[in-house]
Every structure is written in structure tokens, then in C-alpha cells.
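Supplementary Note 3. Input sequence used for the single-chain structure prediction.
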Amino acid sequence: MNTVAVNGIKLAYTRRGKGTPLVLIHGYPLDHASWDEVASLLENQFDVITPDLRGFGQSTTVKTLYSISDMADDLAGLLDNLGLEKAALAGHSMGGYVALAFAKNYPQRVSGLGLVSSQSVADSPEGKDRRYQTAADVAQKGVGVVVDAMTPKLSTVPRVQTFVRAVIEKQSQAAIIGALKAMAEREDLFSYLSSTAFPLVLIHGNADALIPFERAKEIKSAVPSAKLIELQGAGHMTMMEFPGETVNALRFLIR
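The predicted structure, written as C-alpha cells, is reproduced below.
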């Protein structure tokens, strides 16, 4: 992987292909590898960039608290380093939160937006409390707390479960705790989406155990021009469970 220095961290990323720049942003508590199969299928039409968000994979992090908006700023710094004025972004789960924050902070730099198994609303008070409790548990007991809790929720497909378990086990406590706190405090951007002009693609499994398919339908209702792809029987890891369908949906972001 390559690295760039941005905002006091080293951000790791891969880059392949040619065409419309497309940043594929991984979810929690994973890294860029969750996009590998999709990236390989898109590289003939896109300039595909897959970063490790701060703290995850091979990227470093900071000791202080940070926000989803800070993570979006990291991506802006990455694009600056790559000499790219504008790109399409597709974010999975937490990566969708980062993509949304990027779109709000840098609307002139977004050629299209994909939300994959994600949502635009903020956490409920109960959801926020759960994230902080999980962060405390990870600090006390280690990453294994998240490995055991998240693996069955991410997917029911055995090969995908094997993959995500191995990836989560490699992540640092600092990355997981930082991301949990950032997600807990993220801004509600549901109303923001209705004011956007760039293409919007929503890709969601109707068997998602973490973020209900209804969240995608709510966005579609607010943004009628959005392209909604419902994947029958897919769980939270749509890009791994249905890579071909995910690729076809992301092609709507070609400008």
C-alpha cells in the first residue's frame, strides 16, 4: 500500500485502474480489503482508490478524540495529494457516514455518492450509549469483544464471516474505540441529502442485521432521483455477498 501524510496521520491506500476517480470507503471495524473484489471488477472503468480510514489497516491515528468529519478531511487530504479535484465516493456502513460528511464539507469535489449498507441519520440516545459502552469494553477487555459481537451480525455467509473475523482481529483498540466515539457523535445528515445535486446510489440488503433496509427506503423517499438497489437476502456485507450486483450499481456513478 501507499501512504500519504495528512492531518497528523499516515493514511494508507491502494489505487488501481483508470477512468472516473472513485473512492471506496470501508466500514467499521474493517479495512480497505473488504472492497478488494469489487475494486478489481471496477478498475477498467474507474480510477479506484481504497483507503484505510485512520487507525484501521495500515493507517495511523491520533491519541485525541476525532470526528467523522475529521475522517472526511483525511480523504480530502488524500485527494489533494493525488492531484484530484473531484471524485465519486462510495461508503460502506461507517464509510457511508464518512462519505456523507465529505459531501457536506466538500460538495464541489463530489461527482457522485454511493451509500452501501449505510444510513444518513444520527444515532438514537440508546444507540449512542451502546457505542460508548462497547468502547469501554474494548478498552478493558480488548478487540475480541468486537470480533465476537460483530462477526455474526455482519454476515451469515460462512466465507464472509471467516474474512471479517480475521480482519477485525487485526485492528487496534485505538482504531475501534476512536471510530465508536466518532460514530456516536456524528451529525444527522438526512435533511442535507435532499439538497444535493450529484448522483446518489443506495445499495442495501433486505436482510441487513445492523442497519435496516428501511433506512435506504427513507432516503429514497426524500431524494426521489436516487437509485435504490435492493439486494434480496443480502446482509450487511453487500459488496462481498453480491459483488457483481454492487459493481453494476456503482457504475451509475460514472460521469
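The first strand starts at residue 2 and ends at 6. The chain has one domain: 2-121+187-253.
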